[in-house]
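Troubleshooting: if your tokenizer reports a length mismatch, compare your output against this known-good record of 620 residues.
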Amino acid sequence: MNTDKQMQTMTHQWVSVLTGTKDWPGVLVECRRQGWGTLQADRTICGKPPCLGGKSYSSGLGTHADSEIVIHSGNAMTRVRAVVGIDDNADTRIQATAIRLVFSVESEGRTIWKSPACRVGDAGVPVDVRLPHGTQSVTLRIRSVTGSIHYAHADWADAAVEIGGREIRLGSAAMLSLPVPHPAPFSFRYGGKDSAMLLPRWKHTVSSRKAGKGRLLHQVTWRDPATGLECRMDLTEFKDFPAVEWVLHFRNAGKRDTPLLEDVQTMDMAWAASGDTALSRSRGSPCTMTDFELLREPLGNGASVKMAAGGGRSSNSWLPFFNLETGPKGVIVAVGWSGQWAAEFARQGDGPVRMRAGLELTHLRLRPGESIRTPRMLLVFWQKDRQAGHNLLRRLLINQYVPRPGGKPLQGPFSVSHWGGMKSQHHFERLAAYRLEKLRYDYYWMDAGWYGPADSYSPDEFTGDWWKHVGNWTINPAAHPKGLLPLAKAIEKAGMKFLLWFEPERAISGTPWAVAHPDWFLGERGENKNLLLDLGNPQALRWITDYMVAFIRKNHVGLYRQDFNFDPLPYWRAADKKDRQGIAEIRHIEGLYKFWDALRKRCPGLIIDNCSSGGRRIDL
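Known-good structure output:
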């Protein structure tokens, strides 16, 4: 089996364990944690045959306290057998004499068997446990009762489970090499308590269905019986790629405001690390010589890397794509949120890396019937080397994310750009010149300056006051007395499509629509001050959507270029109330996505170009 196929199989197993679908035959062994080293099959932690009280064994699992090993099965397990104890070797005889370990077998959070305190040199303690009916997951746990775990080599010798009367030795079972987060790959605080404590107690349901080409969607829902809060994870599995994607939705199905929902991290999980662990990331695009510079930073013991979008624009400070490299394997993490995301990769001592990403600020109560969504997360698992991971991400994006007009992946268009304030007659002259010289462009690009009142006519970007009229999206009659449609038709006649610049989320204070509908805009009024169109306001969203659809249709716009030339974060934060922090941003980004979806649905074939002072709003 080639590397990609192996990773796809492991990814499917990862999803099955995470969601609880368990639709694979046989048994999977997952080492959720251990004090040192790597879980070994049919060997001790130091690579030798298991030995307990001077007796050698040919099979089993070798680990190191404190440890937690989870056995997953696609079918019900009925029994667990093993012989347990501290491994008897030259090192433990000298170094582990004071250590006492307790072994236990647990199912559904309940201990169903526990050993006495074991010392080095003790004879192995036999384990023979009947499991509750329908058990598909069982935990083998080891704890030190003396505190010290120095040289706490521990064995589950001759370990096996019974399924349908057949014994399966755990040393020969498949090892799940991707760490499965428990109880979920995300986290939050609710009513002052961590989600890791809450979710196992909440009602849990799973449904799965096909979701387009090569995609399988798993909807996993947790519901708090006390308050009615629902947390739904929409997790997508890709048929042909070792990758998963998910987004969270929270809904208040209760009759009262919820307790505080805080610190929502769409991704919060540990990734096994090694000595050569490093993080690759790229700078954002603040219009400097180092835009998008790729950096590789070692993550040594205790090291941490924190970053955030910057001002509410997703790639202002950092590009939200990261590659965590741990020896010959790793994971690419991508964030899908056109606002203020934050991320952290923190090495826990010399152990795993804790990966966290989500909204930078959430501290809010949901009202009855209210729902919110979070950033989208993508994980791409890779083996071999870092560049193989980068190429795998590129193939995934082309196959599953890039628009495909006419069934082919969209490529960057070959465009010729012009100032929008230039008079129509000059545009006609340019078109005639291109036809004469047989210059074959895909798009005729009209940039800013085409809008505003007649007295604001600006023949070039360095002349006039075109910038004062951003937000007044009426065609300037001095520049284009007959509107833009005659020009659009001439562009089509020349064999090109029309690309037009807009900036719908920004308006200068005093422009007509900001005056007529002050409740639609966020920000302080004043001469030449920027205002933010509140896309979280349903009326404002409906108005800008209908206006833009009508404008695009009437003027035959084939590529809609949406710019965004200021930082929205201060506007969102100022609009939030004390117990609703983060809601203005969430509603705005939800509205932005609805706006783009509506343009694509109501204007078939339209291409959207996402600009923001250059490349400051790029994300998944």
